[in-house]
Amino acid sequence: MEGSGSSSPGQSREAGVGRPWSYAPVLIAGHGADRHRVGRMKPAPPFPEPSQDAILQAVGQTAVDLANVGDRGVMLGAVLRRTRALLGADMAYFSLNDLHSGTTYIELTDGVRTPEYRAIRMPFGTGVLGRAAAGAGTVATADYLADRALNHLSGIDTIVRGEGVRAIAGAPMRLGGRVVGALLVAHRAPRVLGPAAEAALEHMAVQAAVALEQTRRGEEIRRLRTTRDDGSAPGARLRLEHLLHLDERLMGAMAGSTAEAAGVFAVLAESVGHPLSLHDPSGALRTGRRLLTPEELAGWRLRAAVRTSQQAGGVAIAHLPGGGTYALLAITTAGEHLATLVMEGADDDAVARLAHASAFMTVALLVERALAQADEAAQTTLVEELVDSRVPPRPTLGSRLAQYGISPDVPATVLVVDVEPAGAVTAARAVRGLDGAGRWLVSVHDGHVCVIASAGTTGPGCAGTGAAALVADGLAAAGTPVLVGAAHSPSGGPSDLRRAHTEAADVAAAARALGRTTGHADFASLGAVGAVIRDRTGTTSREIVGRHLGPVLDYDRRRRTRLADTLWHWFAAGELLAPAADALSVHPNTVRQRLERVDDLLGPDWRTPEGRFHLHLALRLHRVAGPDRSADPATDHGAATAGR
Prior knowledge:
With 644 residues, the chain is an alpha+beta fold. 47% of the residues lie in helices and 16% in strands. It has 22 helices and 18 strands. The protein has helices at residues 52-68, 72-87, 115-118, 127-133, 154-163, 195-229, 234-256, 262-272, 294-298, 300-312, 348-356, 358-387, 397-402, 424-432, 465-477, 494-513, 528-533, 539-559, 563-572, 577-584, 588-602, 609-625; strands at 26-27, 36-37, 91-98, 103-110, 121-123, 139-141, 167-175, 178-187, 276-279, 285-288, 315-319, 325-333, 336-344, 412-418, 441-445, 448-454, 483-489, 519-521. A hairpin with a 5-residue loop joins strand 9 (276-279) and strand 10 (285-288). Helix 1 (52-68) runs antiparallel to helix 7, helix 1 (52-68) packs antiparallel against helix 12 (358-387) and helix 18 (539-559) packs across helix 22 (609-625).
C-alpha cells in the first residue's frame, strides 16, 4: 500500500504550485453508478445545506473562469475554494486516476495542512477517495476512522489521523463517458451529508471535470505548437497546423459563449467543411441544417450507428439505401447520451476533425446543462417564495426578481399551465425554450407549470393573453396541447402575485370544467361566468345557481335523474334535440320529455331569451363549482325515459 507515494504523476500539491500533470480515465459502462452512503454512524451535525442561489452563483463564477482564466492552478484552485465555501468544509481536494497502477492520487488541495495528506494515493475501491474515483457515485462518511463499512488501509488511516480529518464526502468527476478522478470535501469534526449539500458537491464535481478538460486542452495546444516548431515532415506539420487552428478556435468559442454549445458547433461546422447538425438524444434538431428526415433518423441504420458511436467512443459511419453517407458522433458522459453530431459525408480529414472536437462539445454541453439546472432550481425557489404563503420571502427576493425584470413597481402576468403532473417538468422546459419567452420565471408548482413575467414582456393583449397565447400555441405546435389560465397582477410584489396565481389557477379550472381542453383563457374570456366566480366569496354564484337552477338540482338529487345534465347538453347543442340526445345516448323524445319536466319545475319563463340566459349562466356556474356527486349522471341507473 502506498500511504504517501510521491512518484510522478501522483505527487500532489496545494493550489497554486505548478508542475506537469496528466491523468488516466476510468472507463464506466452504462449509466453512472448509484450513489453509496457507507457506514451507519451515530447522529452528527450536517454539512451546511447551500441554497440554490449559492450553487447557481458558484457554477456561474466557474463558467466565467472557463472563459477568461488561462492558468490551470488558478482555475482549479478556485473550484476547490468555492466547493469549500458552499459546504462549509475545512478542506477540499480532487484526485486524478492512474489506470496503470490502479490507483487515484490527490492532485490539488485547498485547506490541507500536512504534506502526507496532500500526497495520498489510494487503490480504487478503498476508502472514500478510492470508491468515489472508481465511479461508485457519491460516497460519504460522517467519521472516517470509525467507519468499519469502508475498506481501510493502515497507512492512510495514520495520515488521516495526523490531518485530524473526521468527515469525508466525495463525488466522481466524469467527462466524456469516463471517470477521471474525484472531488472531495473533508471536515475535522463529524458531519453528515444532506441532500442539498450532496447536490452541490455533485454540481462542483462536474465543474471540476470541465475545468480539468479545458486546461488539459490548453496544454495540449501548447504541446502541439512546440512539436510543430521543432520541425517535422510537411504533411504532418500541415495536419498539426490544422489541429492547432481548430483547437484555438474551439477554445475561443467556449470562452465567448460559455453557456451554449452553439458557439462550439458553429466553429466545428465551418472547420469540417460539410453540412453538419446537432440533435438531442430523441433525435430532435438542436442546431444546424436538417440533413435527415425524422423517419431516416429513426431508421435502424442510423440508430445502430449512434449505438456504435456510444459504445466505441468515436465516429461511426452510416450508408443509407439512397446512397447517402453520414458520419455520426454520439456525445456522451458517464454513459449518458447528451447529443449526436451528424455530418454529411465521411472523408478522413473531416471525420478526424469531428472526432477531435468531441471533448469540446461534451464540455460545452455539460456547462450549458449545469447552468440551466442551477437556473431552473433558482427559478423554482423564487416561484415558491412568491406563490406559496407557507414559504416566507427572503431578504434577497427583490434583487433576485430584478434578474427577471420583475419589480414591485411594475405590473406582472401570471400563467397557470394545466398539464398532466407527469409531464409538468417537460412542459416547463418547453416553455423556457419558446421564442419570445425572454426572461420569464418558469417553474413546476403544485402539479402545474407556473409562469410569472413582467407585463412589459408578455406581448399584446389584456391580462397576459399575449403570453398565454404564446404558451398555448407554442406547446401545441410541439405536440403538447395544454390549457393555460392567465391573470393580471397590478405589481410584482408577493401578495399581488399570489392573488394573481390563485386567479389564474381558478380560470384554468373553470375553463376545463366548461369543456375546454386546450387553448388559453382569462376571466374576461369566460364572460359572465368569469365575472361571477371572480367574487371569491362565492356568494353571488351560489345565489344565481339557487334562484335559477335550484329546483332542477333538488329534483335530480331526490329522484337521481339527469335534468341538469340534459339542460347542459341541450344548450351545448344549440338548443336542438337530436344532437343533445346523441350526447346523452338517449332518444330525442326523452330529451323533449325531460325539458317538459323542467317546465313543470321552473315555469315557462325559463324558455324566454332572458330566462335562457340566466339558466345557462346558472348551469355554467354550477359546472365550475362542481356538481353534487349525489346527482352525478353516472349514478342515474336507467332513469332515462323522462326524468320521472
